[in-house]
Batch of 4 targets.
Target 1
Amino acid sequence: MDSNFYHIFYLRRRGNDALSSIYLRVTIKGKRATTSVNRKISPEFWNSTAGRANGNSQNIKILNRYLSKVENNLYIAHQKLLEKGNSFTAQDLINTYLGKDKENEDQVKMLLEIFQEHNDRVNRLIGKDFAAGTAERYRTAKKHVEEYIKKEYKVKDIPVNEVDHKFISGLEYYLKTERNCAHNSAIKYITNFKKIIRIAHVNEWITKDPFLNWKGKLKVVDREFLTKEELQVMVGKEIKNQRLCLVKDIFLFCCFTGLSYADVEKLSAKEVVTGFDGNQWIKTKRTKTKTRSSIPLLPTAEAILEKYSTHPEVSEERLLPVLSNQKTNAYLKEIADICGINKNLTFHLARHTFATTVTLSNGVPIESVSKMLGHKNLQTTQHYAKILDRKVSDDMAALKNRLGSDFMAGDI
């Protein structure tokens, strides 16, 4: 069996496009087969004799390394066909290189196509298996991957089997530099992307998981919360602007219930019930985790519900007239200024305030706080206890300064 083959890279220009597409041509026994390598280059930088790009720029180096990788994969495909022991054509070699064979003529799987298929499934399952926020994060993750591919590879999409450790590391660097993402945000987006690669691996569209040696560890971030004094200032502050007052009240409602934005936005009359003790309770299922939360209503929260019971936008299905998350967070910045609170006030800070200032600081057992917050495990709630330990340390340091030299160790 004649197993020799020949190959070249060459350019093909279409229309008025200033860039030419790079193609791979394989020849076996005088018969040819071609395929695009999904890359483009200006003809002035192309060396047709070497089948490579000329120059020392970073983009040129990346392109030439990629072409070398294509060559290597072509030789691997050739060896695979030789091991089968059957005769094969140039087209068979191209098909094997692309991940196709005579029995399966499907096109090689493209990364962003797989990502979009996944996101479409998630969108159809919103409210069942996924929250709307989860779907939004996957859409944003896909957008970041798409923009990274355009910037680094100069194409709209790449075959999923081209994703390697270098691609992942490059994506992380891109998110932190070009997109200015904080470390934890970048890691979360890559974790979303990791699920797409796992899907490809399970379906055998790729033979090796490129995330095998990637370690993405989140940094522990101190969660801000309102102190007792700041909370008292906000409760007592009279705000005449109706929209700001509305946002302040709903924020305070969550400070005294621990509900997240998604949970208070959907809070309905059927979720406010009379408990075994004769008091009003919120019994709801968390939008994010689907876990149950049981929260006795404190007087401040009850008063806010009563205040808005006759609001025109309130109904049995919606107990509070919650504005959009974006508008709410924008108004909270104004409210922080009005109240003299020097913190980055966001809606989620209300949930942290409930966990720390309202409950744990007042002796509510951590097990009870965990149940009210709807946490799946106690470790999540324990992070708030660590925050309080830090506060105790700060308070004691301040006490030492106040005591000064009045109580010197030498006097004992």
Target 2
Amino acid sequence: MLNGLFGKKPEKARAEALYRHVVAAARSPDLYARLGVPDTVEGRFEMIILHCALVVLQLQALGDVDDARKLSQALFDTMFDDFDAGMREMGVGDSGVGKKIRFMAEGFYGRAEALRQAAGEEDPGQLQAVLARNVYNTQGDDPRASALALYVNSTIAGLDAQGGAALLDGGQPDFATP
């Protein structure tokens, strides 16, 4: 209790460190130059959501571990605190921020669930379709989505090898190189 009053909870500090790595990976110039992610506010949002979802899914893979749930929630909160601050900097008024954040949170949950389901499928077309729809705003066969799916699968493999426990213990997420 006192830690919450006089300093950050441990999971909040850890979530902020994880979030810095998420944002760094999401801002990799190669995602935009080589993989064709739109270099727009929406494209950057999609990349932050994607990378954050990959970390959250890795933490969820630990199962019913209280520390993993707390860290996952703190990471989500940190991400949306950042989105809130960004919208305010862009001039979105107080009355509009809450609605936009709610819409963005629903988008996060939907995208994370679609990513979880698609990543578990043997058919690579499932993940490609999710990425085409969410990142590129296209339907059907999109070569950019194929390339991004390879990156996502490499990242998932790296995170799986690393394990969620390493993230709990302060490890940096092992994101692939685009």
Target 3
Amino acid sequence: MSDAVKAHPGMYFGAYPAADWPLVIAAWTAADLLRLAGDGARVELVLHRGGALSASVRGATVTAPAGEGKPIEDVIRSGMWYTGLARATVVHAGPWRPCELVGGEQVWRDLDVIIRSDLDGALFGVPDGQWWRDGVSRLAAVLSSPRHRPADGQRVHVIDEATGDRAELP
């Protein structure tokens, strides 16, 4: 956990209790993927039994300044500051196609992006995996707040792997 988050968690997580911080991270992950995919996008979000989080989206477009030479996964990860709050985060983007050069930027189009984060239970002060209890309904509450609500037409399909609960959230 970064020193800034330790010193001022409210700046990052607002009034949410620490037990809800994994759900806020899930909302941030969904929002970042929805931004990459644009209007009408749908993110698949899975709350895994052991406390990990997976998210995927189809049809993403990713841009980076030309000449940086970063792998596409690093470009995506660089926009996700909160991955520092996980023990590990893996990003996969495909199918791999060469990028286009457009106005000084590298542009990758029509990507399927998959992210898996193994969240750090020590950050939340809750035993690993316990933070997803009633995760679908609690995530619905997080996503209904103006701060985390997806844009009109965008959806988050969430599945709690442990319980089988699922929902399509606005």
Target 4
Amino acid sequence: MIPQLAWRAATQLSPRLATKAAYLWVLKGALAVWAYQRRLKRKELFPPFMFVALTNTCNLRCQGCWVEKEGTAHYLPEQDLDHLINSGKKRHAYYYTLLGGEPYMYKNIWDIFKRHPDCYFQTITNGMLFTEANVKRLKQAGNVTPLISIDGWKEQNDLRRGEGVFESADRGMERLKKAGIIFGIATTTTGKNMDEVMTDEYVQHFINKGAMYIWYYIYRPVGEHPHPEYCMSREQIIEMRKRLLRLRRKHPIVIIDTYWTAEGEAFCPAAMGLGFHVGPQGSIEPCPPLSFAREKLSDNGGDVFQTINNSEFLRGFQNFVKDRTKGCVILEHPQELMEFMRSHQVTDFSTRDAFTEYDASKPRHSHHLPGDEIPEDYWVYKLLKKNVFFGMGALG
């Protein structure tokens, strides 16, 4: 697998973009985790990575999406974003995942890439806006990797995302491949699509399209219309884990998850303080589906380190999760989670009534599988999990 992946990178990627990714993404990412580990020893709280929702606007209306797109349009003030990135640079944090809504509907996104050429940005996108002009802009920037959301073959994907989305995203991938841009696929695994997205044929399709990595997520029933019929059973999650290991050994593409450590134990990045989420109103939240916060980027004169490090809410959330599960409290303990949120007098930044939505949720299985842990069985991924993938090495 490794020689084939190296050959793909050497023959398909722009040498300039590959070199920048190796330095800004891989090397600086490892340094960010190292700095995070040092902060842990000092009992300081500041993540090496951040999710940043630039806007809640979107050109799609996907089933099961937690982002409210019908009300007031919000755009993260550029000053707030610069506060975050500049505070991060002082702590060796140079990697930011930009999402929305649809991040490419944020009119000044290209200025962000230019203002911070020493940072690396991942954009989680539906892939509908990769015109020839935008692909050219991405290549010129050189510090961006698009992560395109695809949730199965055409029928399943378009059932959730809308008619014609699969084919449109496919055309965008062809343009990205032609330009030699590093991009990946984000697939939400559901109870309906698991048997098709965790297959050789599915992975091979995106290898042929030029994707260098694929990132799997487990579906969470959140939002005004949560669609619980997409939820996965415990048996399906165990099968997903088994298939991940098999696919990793077979295909020349990096297969990522943020759910399990190298030892196969469940893992929550927010509970470890490895990554928090910033909403389009500048709210600092535990993770993307949890749009609750007490602090904003503009607090403390824009000193984001001070704001996060002194946050009783974010520190309390870590303890709340660790006392209950190694997995996802959204799935396992939704009512207790809302009690915790209310006890900290947080603000709901969803622009809906997220409290009521979570109160009505039914506890479900997450990736925490006590007694059924399956360790990584391939040395490459053992190494990557401990040192690169979302700072897994921070677990020790």
